[in-house]
Amino acid sequence: MRITKDQLASFSPNNFHFRSLELLRERFSNQHIDFEKVIRKIQEFQIAIPSAALGNGRASKKKSRTGGEPRDLSEKLEDIGLLQQLTCKTNSVSIYIPYDIPEDFGQVKDLANELNLEFDTMNSTSSQDQNQKEYAKLGSLGNPKKAIRDEAIAHNEEVINIGKKLGSKGLTVWMADGSNYPGQSKFRSTLGWTEESLREIYEYMPSDWDLMLEYKPYEPNCYHTVVPDWGTSSMLAKRLGERAKVLVDLGHHLPKTNIEQIVATLMYQNLLAGFHFNDSKYGDDELNAGSIKPYQLFLIFCELISGDEDGAQTWDSISWMIDASYNTQDPLVDLIQALESISIAYTKALLVDRKKLQEFQQNGEGSQAQEILQMAYLTDVRPLVCEARVRAGGAAEPLEAYRILMIRNKLVHERGRKSHNSIF
Protein backbone atom coordinates (compact mmCIF):
# COMPACT_ATOMS: atom_id res chain seq x y z
CA MET A 1 0.00 0.00 0.00
CA ARG A 2 1.00 3.65 -0.38
CA ILE A 3 0.17 6.79 1.56
CA THR A 4 -0.96 9.69 -0.61
CA LYS A 5 0.51 13.19 -0.36
CA ASP A 6 -2.87 14.54 0.66
CA GLN A 7 -3.04 12.03 3.50
CA LEU A 8 0.41 13.03 4.73
CA ALA A 9 -0.43 16.72 4.39
CA SER A 10 -3.39 16.26 6.71
CA PHE A 11 -0.94 15.51 9.52
CA SER A 12 0.68 18.94 9.56
CA PRO A 13 2.20 20.74 12.58
CA ASN A 14 -0.06 22.77 14.87
CA ASN A 15 0.52 26.24 16.32
CA PHE A 16 2.08 24.78 19.46
CA HIS A 17 4.80 23.26 17.29
CA PHE A 18 5.75 26.62 15.79
CA ARG A 19 5.74 28.34 19.19
CA SER A 20 7.99 25.58 20.56
CA LEU A 21 10.35 26.00 17.63
CA GLU A 22 10.69 29.72 18.32
CA LEU A 23 11.36 29.08 21.99
CA LEU A 24 14.20 26.75 21.03
CA ARG A 25 15.70 29.41 18.79
CA GLU A 26 15.50 31.91 21.64
CA ARG A 27 17.01 29.56 24.20
CA PHE A 28 20.07 28.80 22.08
CA SER A 29 20.48 32.28 20.56
CA ASN A 30 23.61 32.96 22.64
CA GLN A 31 25.33 29.96 21.02
CA HIS A 32 24.66 31.38 17.56
CA ILE A 33 23.40 28.00 16.37
CA ASP A 34 22.32 27.90 12.74
CA PHE A 35 19.01 26.10 13.13
CA GLU A 36 18.57 25.78 9.39
CA LYS A 37 21.84 23.88 9.27
CA VAL A 38 20.71 21.68 12.16
CA ILE A 39 17.46 20.88 10.34
CA ARG A 40 19.37 19.95 7.19
CA LYS A 41 21.64 17.65 9.18
CA ILE A 42 18.63 15.92 10.74
CA GLN A 43 17.16 15.40 7.29
CA GLU A 44 20.40 14.05 5.87
CA PHE A 45 20.86 11.49 8.66
CA GLN A 46 19.29 8.33 7.24
CA ILE A 47 19.15 4.93 8.96
CA ALA A 48 18.85 1.57 7.19
CA ILE A 49 16.14 -0.92 8.12
CA PRO A 50 17.10 -4.62 8.19
CA SER A 51 14.92 -7.02 6.24
CA ALA A 52 14.78 -9.14 9.42
CA ALA A 53 12.98 -6.49 11.51
CA LEU A 54 9.62 -6.28 9.74
CA GLY A 55 7.78 -9.09 11.49
CA ASN A 56 7.43 -10.72 14.89
CA GLY A 57 10.53 -12.71 14.03
CA ARG A 58 11.16 -14.45 17.31
CA ALA A 59 7.59 -14.77 18.53
CA SER A 60 7.49 -18.12 20.28
CA LYS A 61 3.83 -18.69 19.50
CA LYS A 62 1.98 -17.85 16.34
CA LYS A 63 -0.77 -16.19 18.36
CA SER A 64 1.81 -13.52 19.26
CA ARG A 65 2.08 -12.39 15.65
CA THR A 66 0.82 -8.98 14.61
CA GLY A 67 -0.75 -10.11 11.34
CA GLY A 68 -0.27 -8.55 7.94
CA GLU A 69 3.46 -9.23 8.14
CA PRO A 70 5.46 -9.19 4.90
CA ARG A 71 5.71 -12.57 3.20
CA ASP A 72 8.61 -11.84 0.86
CA LEU A 73 11.29 -9.29 0.09
CA SER A 74 8.99 -7.18 -2.09
CA GLU A 75 6.50 -6.73 0.73
CA LYS A 76 9.35 -5.90 3.11
CA LEU A 77 10.44 -3.15 0.74
CA GLU A 78 6.87 -1.85 0.65
CA ASP A 79 6.80 -1.70 4.46
CA ILE A 80 10.08 0.22 4.53
CA GLY A 81 8.60 2.52 1.90
CA LEU A 82 5.73 3.23 4.31
CA LEU A 83 8.23 4.03 7.06
CA GLN A 84 10.04 6.41 4.75
CA GLN A 85 6.84 8.17 3.76
CA LEU A 86 5.88 8.69 7.39
CA THR A 87 9.29 9.52 8.89
CA CYS A 88 11.58 10.54 5.99
CA LYS A 89 14.30 8.91 8.07
CA THR A 90 15.13 5.65 6.26
CA ASN A 91 16.14 5.46 2.61
CA SER A 92 17.73 2.00 2.50
CA VAL A 93 17.31 -1.66 3.38
CA SER A 94 19.94 -4.06 4.72
CA ILE A 95 19.33 -7.57 3.39
CA TYR A 96 19.87 -10.82 5.31
CA ILE A 97 20.88 -13.88 3.30
CA PRO A 98 19.71 -16.62 2.82
CA TYR A 99 16.38 -15.40 4.17
CA ASP A 100 15.78 -12.76 1.51
CA ILE A 101 17.36 -13.97 -1.73
CA PRO A 102 15.48 -12.15 -4.51
CA GLU A 103 13.61 -14.38 -6.94
CA ASP A 104 13.66 -11.65 -9.59
CA PHE A 105 16.50 -9.16 -9.18
CA GLY A 106 15.12 -6.81 -11.81
CA GLN A 107 11.69 -6.64 -10.18
CA VAL A 108 13.18 -6.06 -6.71
CA LYS A 109 15.47 -3.28 -7.96
CA ASP A 110 12.63 -1.62 -9.87
CA LEU A 111 10.43 -1.67 -6.77
CA ALA A 112 13.24 -0.23 -4.64
CA ASN A 113 13.73 2.57 -7.16
CA GLU A 114 9.99 3.26 -7.17
CA LEU A 115 10.09 3.54 -3.37
CA ASN A 116 13.30 5.65 -3.44
CA LEU A 117 15.17 2.98 -1.49
CA GLU A 118 18.77 1.82 -1.82
CA PHE A 119 20.42 -1.43 -0.77
CA ASP A 120 22.66 -0.93 2.24
CA THR A 121 25.21 -3.38 3.64
CA MET A 122 24.53 -7.09 3.09
CA ASN A 123 24.37 -9.45 6.08
CA SER A 124 25.63 -13.02 6.09
CA THR A 125 24.32 -15.57 8.57
CA SER A 126 27.06 -18.18 8.35
CA SER A 127 26.98 -18.92 12.07
CA GLN A 128 23.30 -19.60 12.37
CA ASP A 129 21.46 -21.37 9.61
CA GLN A 130 23.63 -22.79 6.86
CA ASN A 131 24.70 -25.98 8.62
CA GLN A 132 23.28 -25.77 12.11
CA LYS A 133 24.30 -29.28 13.18
CA GLU A 134 28.00 -28.56 12.58
CA TYR A 135 28.05 -24.84 13.39
CA ALA A 136 26.27 -25.12 16.74
CA LYS A 137 28.99 -27.40 18.06
CA LEU A 138 32.24 -26.11 16.60
CA GLY A 139 31.47 -22.89 14.75
CA SER A 140 31.59 -21.76 11.13
CA LEU A 141 34.48 -19.56 9.96
CA GLY A 142 36.55 -20.81 12.92
CA ASN A 143 35.53 -24.47 12.69
CA PRO A 144 38.41 -26.98 13.05
CA LYS A 145 37.18 -28.78 9.92
CA LYS A 146 38.34 -27.06 6.75
CA ALA A 147 35.37 -28.37 4.79
CA ILE A 148 32.99 -26.59 7.17
CA ARG A 149 35.05 -23.39 7.04
CA ASP A 150 34.97 -23.53 3.24
CA GLU A 151 31.20 -23.95 3.35
CA ALA A 152 30.87 -20.85 5.53
CA ILE A 153 33.22 -18.89 3.27
CA ALA A 154 31.18 -19.93 0.24
CA HIS A 155 28.04 -18.61 1.94
CA ASN A 156 29.66 -15.20 2.43
CA GLU A 157 30.82 -15.20 -1.18
CA GLU A 158 27.24 -15.94 -2.24
CA VAL A 159 26.05 -12.98 -0.17
CA ILE A 160 28.61 -10.75 -1.92
CA ASN A 161 27.44 -11.94 -5.34
CA ILE A 162 23.82 -11.16 -4.47
CA GLY A 163 24.82 -7.77 -3.09
CA LYS A 164 26.68 -6.90 -6.29
CA LYS A 165 23.51 -7.50 -8.30
CA LEU A 166 21.53 -5.26 -5.96
CA GLY A 167 24.07 -2.45 -5.87
CA SER A 168 25.24 -2.90 -2.28
CA LYS A 169 28.76 -1.84 -1.28
CA GLY A 170 29.46 -3.73 1.93
CA LEU A 171 29.26 -6.96 3.92
CA THR A 172 28.55 -7.32 7.65
CA VAL A 173 29.96 -10.46 9.27
CA TRP A 174 28.93 -11.66 12.71
CA MET A 175 29.92 -15.08 13.95
CA ALA A 176 28.41 -17.00 16.83
CA ASP A 177 31.55 -19.15 16.91
CA GLY A 178 32.83 -20.08 20.34
CA SER A 179 32.54 -22.76 23.02
CA ASN A 180 30.51 -23.64 26.09
CA TYR A 181 33.05 -25.55 28.18
CA PRO A 182 36.68 -25.02 29.26
CA GLY A 183 38.94 -27.07 27.02
CA GLN A 184 36.32 -27.46 24.27
CA SER A 185 38.24 -25.18 21.88
CA LYS A 186 41.81 -24.04 21.49
CA PHE A 187 41.55 -20.24 21.59
CA ARG A 188 44.48 -19.40 19.33
CA SER A 189 43.55 -22.01 16.73
CA THR A 190 39.93 -20.90 16.39
CA LEU A 191 41.07 -17.28 16.14
CA GLY A 192 43.63 -18.20 13.48
CA TRP A 193 41.13 -20.17 11.42
CA THR A 194 38.69 -17.27 11.70
CA GLU A 195 41.29 -14.83 10.41
CA GLU A 196 42.13 -17.12 7.47
CA SER A 197 38.45 -17.42 6.56
CA LEU A 198 37.87 -13.69 6.84
CA ARG A 199 40.89 -13.02 4.63
CA GLU A 200 39.43 -15.19 1.87
CA ILE A 201 36.14 -13.31 2.14
CA TYR A 202 37.92 -9.95 2.20
CA GLU A 203 39.93 -10.77 -0.90
CA TYR A 204 36.79 -11.97 -2.69
CA MET A 205 35.00 -8.65 -2.12
CA PRO A 206 35.02 -6.04 -4.92
CA SER A 207 37.58 -3.31 -4.41
CA ASP A 208 34.89 -0.72 -3.63
CA TRP A 209 33.29 -2.82 -0.87
CA ASP A 210 33.84 -2.61 2.89
CA LEU A 211 33.85 -5.49 5.38
CA MET A 212 32.19 -4.71 8.71
CA LEU A 213 33.15 -7.06 11.52
CA GLU A 214 30.84 -7.39 14.53
CA TYR A 215 31.72 -8.61 17.99
CA LYS A 216 29.78 -10.00 20.95
CA PRO A 217 31.03 -11.18 24.35
CA TYR A 218 28.67 -14.16 24.63
CA GLU A 219 25.53 -15.81 23.23
CA PRO A 220 24.86 -18.35 21.99
CA ASN A 221 28.07 -19.65 23.55
CA CYS A 222 28.51 -19.20 27.29
CA TYR A 223 32.24 -19.79 27.85
CA HIS A 224 34.10 -18.10 25.01
CA THR A 225 33.35 -16.25 21.77
CA VAL A 226 35.97 -16.06 19.02
CA VAL A 227 35.37 -12.33 18.42
CA PRO A 228 34.20 -11.17 21.88
CA ASP A 229 35.11 -7.48 21.89
CA TRP A 230 36.12 -4.42 19.90
CA GLY A 231 39.80 -5.07 20.51
CA THR A 232 39.71 -8.49 18.84
CA SER A 233 37.53 -7.15 16.04
CA SER A 234 39.84 -4.18 15.39
CA MET A 235 42.91 -6.44 15.48
CA LEU A 236 41.38 -8.67 12.81
CA ALA A 237 40.28 -5.65 10.76
CA LYS A 238 43.81 -4.22 10.77
CA ARG A 239 45.28 -7.54 9.69
CA LEU A 240 42.81 -7.86 6.83
CA GLY A 241 43.26 -4.44 5.25
CA GLU A 242 42.05 -0.85 5.12
CA ARG A 243 38.57 -1.79 3.85
CA ALA A 244 37.84 -3.84 6.97
CA LYS A 245 36.49 -2.02 10.02
CA VAL A 246 34.63 -2.62 13.28
CA LEU A 247 30.84 -2.61 13.54
CA VAL A 248 29.44 -1.54 16.93
CA ASP A 249 26.18 -3.19 17.94
CA LEU A 250 25.02 -1.25 21.01
CA GLY A 251 23.53 -4.35 22.66
CA HIS A 252 26.68 -6.45 22.16
CA HIS A 253 28.44 -5.24 25.31
CA LEU A 254 28.73 -6.33 28.90
CA PRO A 255 26.75 -4.23 31.42
CA LYS A 256 28.21 -0.80 32.25
CA THR A 257 30.61 -0.81 29.28
CA ASN A 258 31.68 2.69 28.24
CA ILE A 259 30.53 2.43 24.62
CA GLU A 260 31.13 6.11 23.85
CA GLN A 261 34.81 5.63 24.70
CA ILE A 262 34.97 2.62 22.37
CA VAL A 263 33.46 4.78 19.62
CA ALA A 264 36.02 7.53 20.21
CA THR A 265 38.90 5.04 20.21
CA LEU A 266 37.76 3.43 16.96
CA MET A 267 37.32 6.83 15.28
CA TYR A 268 40.79 7.82 16.48
CA GLN A 269 42.09 4.93 14.35
CA ASN A 270 39.60 5.45 11.49
CA LEU A 271 38.30 1.96 12.28
CA LEU A 272 34.60 2.58 12.94
CA ALA A 273 32.52 0.84 10.27
CA GLY A 274 29.08 1.63 11.59
CA PHE A 275 26.32 0.99 14.08
CA HIS A 276 23.54 -1.41 14.82
CA PHE A 277 21.12 0.59 16.94
CA ASN A 278 19.30 -1.18 19.79
CA ASP A 279 19.33 -1.23 23.57
CA SER A 280 19.60 -3.76 26.41
CA LYS A 281 18.58 -4.12 30.03
CA TYR A 282 20.49 -7.28 30.94
CA GLY A 283 22.19 -9.40 28.29
CA ASP A 284 19.72 -8.87 25.48
CA ASP A 285 20.16 -6.72 22.37
CA GLU A 286 16.62 -6.55 21.03
CA LEU A 287 15.14 -3.47 22.69
CA ASN A 288 14.54 -0.17 20.93
CA ALA A 289 17.49 2.20 20.80
CA GLY A 290 17.34 4.69 23.65
CA SER A 291 14.51 2.89 25.45
CA ILE A 292 16.75 1.95 28.41
CA LYS A 293 19.89 4.13 28.19
CA PRO A 294 18.99 7.35 26.31
CA TYR A 295 21.81 9.37 27.89
CA GLN A 296 24.37 6.84 26.68
CA LEU A 297 22.98 7.15 23.14
CA PHE A 298 23.31 10.94 23.39
CA LEU A 299 26.93 10.66 24.57
CA ILE A 300 27.72 8.30 21.70
CA PHE A 301 26.42 10.85 19.22
CA CYS A 302 28.49 13.54 20.95
CA GLU A 303 31.62 11.49 20.23
CA LEU A 304 30.54 10.80 16.65
CA ILE A 305 29.95 14.48 15.89
CA SER A 306 33.14 15.52 17.65
CA GLY A 307 35.20 12.90 15.81
CA ASP A 308 33.84 14.10 12.47
CA GLU A 309 34.44 17.78 13.24
CA ASP A 310 37.96 17.10 14.52
CA GLY A 311 38.86 15.15 11.38
CA ALA A 312 39.36 11.79 13.10
CA GLN A 313 36.89 10.01 10.81
CA THR A 314 34.29 11.41 8.45
CA TRP A 315 30.59 11.09 9.23
CA ASP A 316 29.88 9.83 5.70
CA SER A 317 32.22 6.86 6.17
CA ILE A 318 29.96 5.39 8.88
CA SER A 319 27.01 3.06 8.28
CA TRP A 320 23.78 3.18 10.33
CA MET A 321 21.18 0.45 10.85
CA ILE A 322 18.50 -0.50 13.36
CA ASP A 323 19.00 -4.04 14.64
CA ALA A 324 16.26 -5.32 16.92
CA SER A 325 13.65 -8.07 16.97
CA TYR A 326 10.06 -7.11 17.73
CA ASN A 327 8.51 -10.18 19.27
CA THR A 328 5.07 -9.15 20.47
CA GLN A 329 4.43 -5.61 19.24
CA ASP A 330 3.66 -4.17 15.83
CA PRO A 331 7.14 -3.99 14.23
CA LEU A 332 6.32 -0.88 12.20
CA VAL A 333 5.26 0.95 15.36
CA ASP A 334 8.48 -0.06 17.10
CA LEU A 335 10.58 0.98 14.12
CA ILE A 336 8.90 4.40 14.05
CA GLN A 337 9.66 4.77 17.76
CA ALA A 338 13.27 3.68 17.23
CA LEU A 339 13.82 6.13 14.37
CA GLU A 340 12.38 8.93 16.51
CA SER A 341 14.51 8.04 19.52
CA ILE A 342 17.71 7.93 17.46
CA SER A 343 16.85 11.25 15.78
CA ILE A 344 16.21 12.91 19.14
CA ALA A 345 19.56 11.75 20.58
CA TYR A 346 21.38 12.94 17.47
CA THR A 347 19.65 16.32 17.49
CA LYS A 348 20.48 16.90 21.16
CA ALA A 349 24.12 16.17 20.42
CA LEU A 350 24.05 18.76 17.61
CA LEU A 351 23.08 21.44 20.17
CA VAL A 352 26.12 20.92 22.42
CA ASP A 353 28.24 24.07 22.69
CA ARG A 354 31.48 22.39 21.65
CA LYS A 355 33.58 25.52 21.89
CA LYS A 356 32.79 26.00 25.57
CA LEU A 357 32.95 22.26 26.21
CA GLN A 358 36.47 22.11 24.82
CA GLU A 359 37.54 25.05 26.98
CA PHE A 360 36.24 23.35 30.12
CA GLN A 361 37.85 20.06 29.10
CA GLN A 362 41.16 21.79 28.53
CA ASN A 363 41.05 23.30 32.01
CA GLY A 364 39.76 20.16 33.70
CA GLU A 365 36.53 21.83 34.81
CA GLY A 366 34.35 18.75 35.08
CA SER A 367 31.19 20.26 36.56
CA GLN A 368 31.02 23.02 33.94
CA ALA A 369 31.60 20.49 31.16
CA GLN A 370 28.78 18.37 32.56
CA GLU A 371 26.47 21.41 32.57
CA ILE A 372 27.16 21.98 28.87
CA LEU A 373 26.16 18.41 28.09
CA GLN A 374 23.12 18.55 30.37
CA MET A 375 21.80 21.74 28.79
CA ALA A 376 21.65 20.02 25.41
CA TYR A 377 20.48 16.65 26.71
CA LEU A 378 17.62 18.00 28.81
CA THR A 379 16.27 20.10 25.93
CA ASP A 380 13.08 18.91 24.28
CA VAL A 381 14.23 18.80 20.65
CA ARG A 382 11.13 17.10 19.26
CA PRO A 383 10.04 20.35 17.52
CA LEU A 384 13.31 20.36 15.55
CA VAL A 385 12.96 16.70 14.61
CA CYS A 386 9.35 17.29 13.59
CA GLU A 387 10.23 20.36 11.52
CA ALA A 388 12.95 18.47 9.66
CA ARG A 389 10.53 15.62 8.93
CA VAL A 390 7.68 17.85 7.74
CA ARG A 391 9.94 19.87 5.45
CA ALA A 392 11.13 16.58 3.92
CA GLY A 393 7.53 15.57 3.23
CA GLY A 394 6.76 13.34 6.21
CA ALA A 395 4.04 13.43 8.84
CA ALA A 396 4.33 15.77 11.81
CA GLU A 397 3.45 12.86 14.12
CA PRO A 398 4.23 9.55 12.33
CA LEU A 399 2.72 7.29 14.99
CA GLU A 400 -0.50 9.29 15.06
CA ALA A 401 -0.70 9.11 11.27
CA TYR A 402 0.02 5.37 11.30
CA ARG A 403 -2.80 4.70 13.74
CA ILE A 404 -5.39 7.09 12.31
CA LEU A 405 -4.78 5.77 8.78
CA MET A 406 -5.16 2.24 10.23
CA ILE A 407 -2.16 1.02 8.27
CA ARG A 408 -1.76 -2.26 10.15
CA ASN A 409 -5.44 -3.09 9.63
CA LYS A 410 -5.06 -2.45 5.92
CA LEU A 411 -1.97 -4.66 5.76
CA VAL A 412 -3.86 -7.44 7.53
CA HIS A 413 -6.69 -7.04 5.02
CA GLU A 414 -4.23 -7.24 2.09
CA ARG A 415 -1.99 -10.04 3.40
CA GLY A 416 -4.08 -11.91 5.91
CA ARG A 417 -4.10 -12.34 9.67
CA LYS A 418 -1.70 -15.31 9.52
CA SER A 419 0.85 -13.88 7.08
CA HIS A 420 4.32 -13.73 8.55
CA ASN A 421 7.89 -12.81 7.88
CA SER A 422 9.56 -15.44 5.69
CA ILE A 423 12.66 -15.43 7.91
CA PHE A 424 10.98 -17.40 10.69
From TrEMBL:
Coiled coil: none annotated. Residues 103-285 form the Xylose isomerase-like TIM barrel domain. It holds the Pfam family AP_endonuc_2. InterPro entries: L-rhamnose_isomerase, Xyl_isomerase-like_sf, Xyl_isomerase-like_TIM-brl. Signal peptide: none annotated. Keywords: Isomerase, Manganese, Metal-binding. It comes from the Bacteria. GO terms for molecular function: isomerase activity; metal ion binding. This is Sugar isomerase. It comes from Algoriphagus ratkowskyi. The lineage of its organism: Bacteria, Pseudomonadati, Bacteroidota, Cytophagia, Cytophagales.
